[in-house]
Structure formats: C-alpha cells, structure tokens
Structure of DUF7907 domain-containing protein:
Amino acid sequence: MLSTILLGICALTASVTAQYTTQSDPFYLVLLSEDLQVNGSTLNACHEGAAIEGLCVGSKLPLNGTTTGFSTFQFNTSESITVPNPDIGETGLLTFTLRGSGFNESEAMSLYPYTASNVALPLFQPGYSQTPVAFDARELLNIQDYIDDTVDPAVAAGPFALYRWYSCKVYYTGYRYTVLSWVYGKYPPQNPTCCKVDVLRVFA
Ligand SMILES: *[C@@H]1O[C@H](CO)[C@@H](O)[C@H](O)[C@H]1NC(C)=O
Ligand SMILES: *[C@@H]1O[C@H](CO)[C@@H](O)[C@H](O)[C@H]1NC(C)=O
Ligand SMILES: *[C@@H]1O[C@H](CO)[C@@H](O)[C@H](O)[C@H]1NC(C)=O
Ligand SMILES: *[C@@H]1O[C@H](CO)[C@@H](O)[C@H](O)[C@H]1NC(C)=O
C-alpha cells in the first residue's frame, strides 16, 4: 500500500514541475450558484498587495456584450502531460496577465492557506508556487488529487476532481474582500459567510 501511495505522490510531483507554456485563448470565469444573486457573477482580478491579485466576485456579464472592466484569464498546459481522464480534464495553470507601465507579467494561481482556517485564498503572485487546476468536460474548474486519507489505510485513488469552491468574505492584509475561496478537506467552510459555487469557463 505504501508503494502505491508513493507512486501517486511521484505522479503529482512530476506534473507540478512540468513546464506549462501552451497558453489557451482568454476566457471569463463565471460563478454558478443556487444563490440567484451570486449565480452568473464574474470573477475579476483585484489588487490585494504588491503584484498580488485575488479573484473578487463582481457583476454579471452584461447581455449587450460590453466587456470593459471584466478580467480575462488563460489556461497554461504542458505538452509533456498526458491526460489521465478527459472527463475531469487536463491539469495546468490558471494564469492572469498583470499589465503595468512597461511590463506584462503572467502570474499563476496558487492557493494561500491559513493555519487557523480550512478556507484558503486563490491568489496570483509572481514567481510564487503554483497550484495545478483543470477544466472538466462541462468547463468547470476543479483541483485534482490522488490520495484519499479519509479511510484507513489511505488509498491512492486517483486522479479524482474536487470542486470545493466558495464565495466568501475574507480578511487579507487588513482588508475585507468577497472572493473565490477554496475549502480544504470534506467538511463545510468554518467561515460562516461562505456560499457554495462552481466556476465556469466562458471563452471571451
Ligand atoms: C503561460 O504561457 C505563456 C506562453 O508560453 C508564457 O509566456 C507565460 O509565462 C506562462 N505563464 C506562466 C505563469 O507560466
Ligand atoms: C444559474 O445560471 C445558469 C446560466 O445562466 C442557469 O443555467 C442556471 O439555471 C442558474 N441556476 C439557478 C439555480 O437558477
Ligand atoms: C451594456 O450594459 C451595461 C450593464 O447593464 C451598461 O453599463 C452599459 O452602458 C451597456 N452598454 C451599451 C453599449 O449599451
Ligand atoms: C502588454 O500587453 C498589451 C496587450 O497585449 C500590449 O498592448 C502592450 O504593448 C504590452 N506591454 C509590454 C510592455 O509588453
């Protein structure tokens, strides 16, 4: 059993160190939710620190096609990764291009965990660690893993897709934001403001 788990870990590490240089066309990220106020809201890059952007929950895409002010994202994949399961999708990096005066910086999304909470923040940060994600056959954003530790002994049962996305009010560096969040583990978010969402890719 230990050797199967190690195999799983090795497979994941291999994908983390891959070069993700094949870039998709730009797309919007749209929330799907049972909450009709939230359903259809877009995610927009919002400044949360020096070159650090979070995914703030914004207004819905207008039906008249006006898209000024809405963020687009891209998906960077690697040619060296074979897709183990097309239904849950190929893993790659969710990227955002930070445009500054005289520079364009492609930043990858990574999860920023809090020690005291099971609610983590997806952030775009230059040169920071990367959290591989995927879009499934329904265009829904997921994070994949290999190991199920809810049973004894733990099993390497993967890859499987997780969709633990929520819209939450969070504190980050002294400010309050309503942002896309990720909940670690199978229990509900301990932050009482969180509302369950799915994240849909809509090409621009
Ligand atoms: C994504 O791919 C583009 C095109 O190869 C590259 O310029 C960019 O640096 C990549 N972004 C990240 C965060 O790796
Ligand atoms: C949310 O919006 C989508 C797309 O507009 C729609 O198909 C879906 O039925 C809506 N969900 C709810 C719960 O109303
Ligand atoms: C399109 O709709 C948005 C939001 O409803 C509005 O702010 C904008 O002025 C409209 N643009 C045009 C060209 O009608
Ligand atoms: C950044 O990208 C924009 C849009 O593609 C382009 O117009 C601009 O010239 C780029 N700036 C730099 C410094 O490369």
Observations:
- The pocket of 2-acetamido-2-deoxy-beta-D-glucopyranose (ligand 1) is lined by residues 20-21, 23, 76, 93, 95, 106-108 (CB under 6 Å).
- Residues 2-203 form a domain with the Trefoil (Acidic Fibroblast Growth Factor, subunit A) fold (CATH 2.80.10).
- The two ends are 45 Å apart (CA to CA).
- Residues 32 and 198 are 5 Å apart (CA to CA).
